[in-house]
Amino acid sequence: ILYFGPLKECLGLSDEWVEWEGSDSNHLLEYLRARDEKWASALAAENIFNLVVNKEMISHTVRIRDGDEVAILPPVTGG
Fold it and tell me: Which residues of the chain have pLDDT under 50?
């Protein structure tokens, strides 16, 4: 899992490996939020961030398999 922007600063890490049996993107977020209050707050559903799986931005729940690359990004702005 790769973390970027304010999320990287808040959580104090830029990347990590997570053993994963395989499930979906919602389950992964629930798993991370369950770590502690800091994680729950940083990844709260009302926070705006983007999930990228295998370099593809997702907008819905997707299956994540062991070995997939997941990135959590702040919203992209610009013009």
Answer: none
